[in-house]
């Protein structure tokens, strides 16, 4: 008959009690960490909700200003498109590129689509735009509006930048700001000028476009006869 071993019995009891304590402690730690995690998520939800409200308010304000400006910009773009039909661009001469981006990172390809087009032009690649592809400039000047265009292109094309206009949207964009930037660029009287920008379509979609504008130099080539023919064709 086996005699009970008191010491082994006590050892087993102590091990069982120790395991029970460890399990309770582990469960308690899990509950505590889970509680902290829930509080953290709720705090992030509150911050995100507040940011959404601020973003929605800013977006509505910008959209309202954009709709008001379209009454002036749409006819002006139409004039530029008509002038482009006269083929007054000077080939094998300088080209000024005005690239419009944001100061901060945005979702999707808002900034990268603009920088991608700029990079193609800076490296003399085709951009599927007949007007621009036919210019074949002998020198390119780059004007950046927004910090993101600098960060995207400064590593390989730093020498092309003439000036960077950043933090321009700390206050709502207005006519005075636009006039200042436009005057600084137009004073250089470049032979060819194009603007690369994102055309707003909706809150989740846009279209990256190239708009050709003119300084005084190419406009001096236009005569009244050409303008009268152009006007008659539009009627």
From TrEMBL:
<dbReference type="GO" id="GO:0046933">
    <property type="term" value="F:proton-transporting ATP synthase activity, rotational mechanism"/>
</dbReference>
<keyword id="KW-0813">Transport</keyword>
<protein>
    <submittedName>
        <fullName>ATP synthase subunit gamma</fullName>
    </submittedName>
</protein>
<comment type="similarity">
    <text>Belongs to the ATPase gamma chain family.</text>
</comment>
<dbReference type="InterPro" id="IPR035968">
    <property type="entry name" value="ATP_synth_F1_ATPase_gsu"/>
</dbReference>
<dbReference type="Pfam" id="PF00231">
    <property type="entry name" value="ATP-synt"/>
</dbReference>
<dbReference type="GO" id="GO:0045259">
    <property type="term" value="C:proton-transporting ATP synthase complex"/>
</dbReference>
<keyword id="KW-0139">CF(1)</keyword>
<dbReference type="InterPro" id="IPR000131">
    <property type="entry name" value="ATP_synth_F1_gsu"/>
</dbReference>
<keyword id="KW-0375">Hydrogen ion transport</keyword>
<keyword id="KW-0406">Ion transport</keyword>
<keyword id="KW-0472">Membrane</keyword>
<keyword id="KW-0066">ATP synthesis</keyword>
């Amino acid at each position: 008959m086996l005699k009970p071993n008191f010491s082994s019995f006590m050892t087993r009891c102590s091990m069982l009690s120790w395991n029970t304590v460890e399990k309770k402690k582990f469960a308690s730690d899990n509950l505590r960490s889970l509680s902290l995690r829930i509080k953290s998520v709720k705090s992030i939800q509150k911050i995100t909700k507040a940011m959404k409200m601020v973003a929605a308010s800013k977006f509505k304000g910008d959209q309202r200003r954009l709709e008001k400006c379209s009454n002036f910009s749409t006819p002006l773009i139409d004039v530029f498109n008509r002038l482009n039909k006269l083929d007054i661009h000077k080939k094998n001469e300088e080209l000024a590129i005005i690239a419009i981006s944001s100061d901060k990172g945005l979702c999707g390809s808002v900034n990268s689509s603009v920088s991608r087009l700029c990079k193609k032009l800076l490296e003399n690649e085709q951009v599927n735009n007949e007007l621009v592809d036919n210019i074949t400039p002998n020198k390119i000047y780059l004007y950046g509006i927004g910090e993101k265009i600098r960060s995207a292109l400064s590593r390989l094309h730093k020498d092309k930048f003439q000036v960077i206009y950043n933090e321009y949207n700390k206050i709502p964009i207005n006519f005075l700001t636009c006039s200042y930037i436009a005057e600084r660029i137009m004073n250089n009287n470049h032979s060819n000028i194009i603007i690369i920008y994102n055309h707003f379509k909706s809150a989740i979609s846009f279209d990256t476009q190239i708009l050709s504008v003119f300084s005084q130099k190419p406009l001096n080539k236009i005569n009244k006869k050409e303008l009268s023919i152009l006007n008659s064709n539009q009627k």
